[in-house]
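Journal club side-thread
Mid-discussion, someone asked how the predicted structure for our own chain would compare to the paper's figures. Pasting it here so we can look after the session.
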Amino acid sequence: MQIKDLKQGMWIECQQGVAEIISIDQAHNSVIIENRDDHTRNTIKCDDITDQPQLHTGCDSYY
């Protein structure tokens, strides 16, 4: 995904599963995420984030 499309608090899908964006680092085109299952934090590149329109901000489940 493009970094301009990401916001703090947004739920995203990546290789680690569903996670919440904690912080955005525009200089390195990366974000810090917190996994919803085990609450671990990781830094990932924006290119590794899957655009998932069914995963809504503030909701950690799919329709």
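Post-session note: The domain at 3-50 is CATH 2.30.30.140 (SH3 type barrels.).
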